[in-house]
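Usage

Read records sequentially. Each one opens with the input sequence:
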Amino acid sequence: MTQTNVLGTERNTSDQEGTQHNHPAQTHLNRILERLSPLDIPAMENVEAYLRHKVRLHHKSQTMNSSFTSIVLFLDFYGKSGKRDLAEITRSDLEAFIEHEQDRGMHISTVKTRLACIVAFLHYLIEQDRIPNTAVRKRIRVKLPETLPRAMNPQDVKKLLSIIDHTRDRALFLLLLRTGIRIGEALALTMNDVDLNDRKVHVFQGEKNDMGRVVYMSNDAVFCLKRWFRWRDPEKVLVFYGKGDAPLSYSTARIHFTKYLEEAGITGKGYTVHCLRHTFASELLNAGMRLEVLQQLMGHQDIDMTRRYARLTDRTREEEYHRAMATIEQGDIHGAY
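and closes with the structure output:
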């Protein structure tokens, strides 16, 4: 018999036969349920019902996976504490799980995401009258550190772009830099999503929040895309693709980006592909763009997410500081040393 861990990573491949003709969302659900079936956790039937509910709401595969992982980890922890009935869940059970995940070394943002998935699961059970409204009556807050987005230094951006001579990669990374779209959104673009004449890109479904938006392209991004379009296979649907029929994956794009950082001599600074999005936002703010406009381009539902970039870089604030400090240094007020 195959040994299966708490997340059910081992599965019988023969059970997958007969699912290949299903709708993609249903096929993905079947794979998750295969991982669920051999587990010994409380409320298995409730987990399955919740996952089917998420499929009906058209939740994406990534969201399904995150929910599955979070719920299974919690229920395994809950079962090992000696409880099996979800009606007995209390706030202290959730708090104990949070501490357990932190003790395991999980990043606080990961813990917060898992808690959100678990609470959503419990709210579903409450709405279905399967458990009482006791555990989540009062919200549990997990405070995240106020980290700043990491934008690239302008000189480092120049060094990076100066060594990318691969036509596809240059078009991809410059598109990220000039539109601020996420790497997952860029890799999902089809040729119908890009309008070179109007210099627009239609992101019909945001990667994180499913919020569609229209972003705009600079002249240099359009130029690079035109070059790539002359080389790319016209039979392909995706704008950026890998070898054969496979799409270009995030891991492949990340490997290429890391290689270019090494060739440009700018490793060790914490730069990732996502830093291109941060650089886009900080440069537009420095150029005078209003936060409300940047929020729409970034696809942020909450403007507080966009406001982080104002803390990262604000040329007006910087200029006012130096102007005030010049006054101090001239001895016009107390503070000249």
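Summary fields computed downstream for this record:
- The radius of gyration is 24 Å.
- The chain is about 55% helix and 5% strand.
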